[in-house]
Structures are given as C-alpha cells and as structure tokens.
Design a protein that fits this description.
This protein has 211 residues and is an alpha/beta fold. It has eight helices and eight strands; from the N terminus they run E-E-E-H-H-H-E-E-E-E-E-H-H-H-H-H. It starts with a strand and ends with a helix.
C-alpha cells in the first residue's frame, strides 16, 4: 500500500548482516523486544530475498514453475522480468539508507486521496509514503505483525520494499493474495499486471525463500 503520512517519529539505528537499518517508531521509548523483533524481521526478509533470487537459477525446478504460475500467472520465461525487481529490492536493502517504521496501533495515520489526515482508518498492514517527483518514503510495517506474526511481518516488509525500491503497484482485491498465499482475493488480474504487483513478489518470495 502507498499512502501519505504526517506523524512524528523517533528513531534508533541497528546493523544487519547486510548493512545499517534506521528503526523509527511513534513512541518515545522503543523497547529491546521491539528493536530485536524489528531487526529480525528485516534480517529474515533479506535472507528470504537472497534464497528466492538463488532459486531463479533453476528454471526447470517444478517448485519454481508452480510458484511463478500461481503468483505471476506465467511460465519460466517470466524469470527475466521477475529477477530484476528482486535485485532492485536487494540493492535497496544494502545501500545503507534502509528505514523501517513500526506503529503501536492496529491502524495507521495517513493522508487520504483528498489530503485529509485521518486516525481511525481500517487495519493497514504496511505502507510506503509517496513523495514528490515519484520518490518513496520509508517502509512501514504494523507493530502487530512485528511482534506477533513473523511470517506476515516479513511478507509485508517485502511487499512494501518492492514499492520502495522497484516501483511496483497494487491492483486492489484482484492483486492482493489471501493470507495463506493460496490465491488472489478476487479474479481478474492479468499476467502482465502480476509482473508489477507487489503482493505477487511478496508471496512468491515467501513460497520460495522463507525458512
């Protein structure tokens, strides 16, 4: 999801195996448990991404073919379209400018399409803020996932990272997957749209690289 954002954030820094991470949060105090869980989410997202990119070298593997068919509605010939997106995310995570924001509520404060700031919006898993001239802001993942659901925290991080670093898009209910990754929530997304769909990349990575 890509939204506007107008809140005050506090920050601390962490260092992953891939480089520096800036952790940002709404509360003045950011506990060790939150810091550790945030770093573990980013570390797991990076290892998941690495393993997935490695799988792309095995075009004949049935597991890979099945995942590409499910998440991209394509065959192995789509690998040259998929790999650059994942490599852009990998490069973005290692450039030393990665920031992760967590939110202590199950809703996220944002500016809607009419420029109106709102508090009580429906549950949002994550987002990146759209900036001027096509720029993208920090990656946001809800604290609920960071602290309680590692799988969905990592999946949401990768989803938002593809927006942030590879300019992917969302296609509404047609582009969002069911939570278990079994299928799209609604029919209608095309293979071409899948190749630019953030949730396709996120669930593809979870299927191929999450351990």
């Amino acid at each position: 999801m890509q939204l506007g954002n107008k809140v005050a954030w506090f920050g601390t820094s962490g260092k992953g195996s891939f480089g520096k991470v800036r952790l940002k949060h709404r509360e003045l105090f950011f506990g060790k448990a939150e810091e550790q869980a945030s770093m573990q989410t980013v570390e797991k997202a990076y290892s998941t991404l690495q393993l997935t990119i490695g799988w792309l070298r095995h075009a004949e593997a049935q597991k890979l073919k099945d995942a590409i068919q499910l998440y991209f509605k394509s065959g192995a010939s789509a690998i040259p379209r998929i790999q650059p997106i994942l490599e852009l995310v990998q490069a973005g995570m290692t450039n030393g400018k990665l920031s992760l924001k967590t939110d202590n509520t199950s809703t996220s404060r944002f500016v809607n399409q009419f420029g109106v700031e709102a508090d009580d919006v429906p549950y949002i898993e994550g987002y990146v803020r759209n900036g001027a001239n096509g720029s993208k802001g920090d990656i946001h993942v809800t604290r609920d996932y960071i602290m309680n659901n590692r799988f969905q925290a990592v999946r949401t991080f990768i989803h938002e990272a593809t927006h942030r670093f590879a300019n992917t898009d969302d296609f509404g209910e047609q582009g969002y997957m069911h939570a278990d990754g079994s299928d799209f929530r609604a029919p209608g997304i095309t293979a071409e749209q899948c190749l630019n769909n953030a949730d396709s990349y996120a669930y593809f990575c979870m299927a191929m690289g999450y351990r």
